[in-house]
Amino acid sequence: MAAIGAYLSGILGLALRILLMQTSFPKWLQTRNEVVTPVTAWDRVEEGFSLQKEFVSPYSGDLLHETPLALRFLKTAYYVPFGVKGFFIMIDFFTMILLYKIAALFKDSLIREQNIEKKKYSSKAEKLVLTPEEVSSLPTLILTVHAVNPFSIMTLLAMSTASLSNLVTLAALYYFLKVIGLFHLQYESSKSYWSKEAIASYLQTVGLFLFFVTFLLGISYLYLEGSLDFIYSTYGFILTVPDLTPNVGVFWYFFTEMFDHFRTFFVCVFQLNAVIYTVPLTVKFA
């Protein structure tokens, strides 16, 4: 029954997207700062393609802020059935599939961990114990939330490159959960965070991170024929916040109102917020 619900939700979500793509709504959404940003705007990607056709680096100006690999992948949008619109609908279709699969993995993990810990529960907590039937609809619910979520639909219709970023993030998460299983590495409560096993896990994680970052940067470097122009236009652009176009975030407003001689300090403080909570949250929920 849950599988039927997932199919119906997916079909409904795709139908909504296909129908709305035929209207003038997408063109209007592409101009809305609530949906697109200087990093994710499709018209900026098209400007990058135009520069490449003229044998000019797409990062020579201040328009394109997508990575070289994303730019290469997005170029395939012109070669898929139904063009760019069909390309973004396909991205959202695969996003739905990955969301469903990740939710299914989480559901199975939840029941499995509960069965392991069940012997420690009080007999009075029997009514609070989850059953497979109670969580069987979780993947369908997650898929449905994405399929009919207005903001998800608007992001797709605006052809925001955030759709691709979401897909890649989900694919990486699913890969680690399913294939490598790094997120399933758990230690007994009696073991220290500084035990040999824990330190080995830390080193493995850092090593994999550095390997993939170096690998991706190397491919990007070769793709641009030995140029590193993309580093400032992508990562530097995000870190230094030079574009203060209004959007749903708070950076643009804060830095518009701030005196310039405080800028460097507050850029560091704001960017630090993205990582400062990582360690305590990891320790808390590990």
UniProtKB/TrEMBL annotation:
GO cellular component entries: GPI-anchor transamidase complex
PANTHER family tied to this protein: GPI TRANSAMIDASE COMPONENT PIG-U, PHOSPHATIDYLINOSITOL GLYCAN ANCHOR BIOSYNTHESIS CLASS U PROTEIN
Chief location of this protein within or outside the cell: endoplasmic reticulum
Topology in the lipid bilayer: Multi-pass membrane protein
GO terms of biological process kind: attachment of GPI anchor to protein; GPI anchor biosynthetic process
Pathway: Glycolipid biosynthesis; glycosylphosphatidylinositol-anchor biosynthesis
Ranges annotated as spanning the membrane: 6-25, 78-100, 151-177, 198-224, 230-255, 262-283
UniProt source species: Biomphalaria glabrata
Family in the record: Belongs to the PIGU family.
Protein encoded by which gene: 106061700
Cell compartments where the protein resides: Endoplasmic reticulum membrane
Protein name: Uncharacterized protein
Segment forming the signal sequence: none
Key words of the record: Endoplasmic reticulum, GPI-anchor biosynthesis, Membrane, Transmembrane, Transmembrane helix
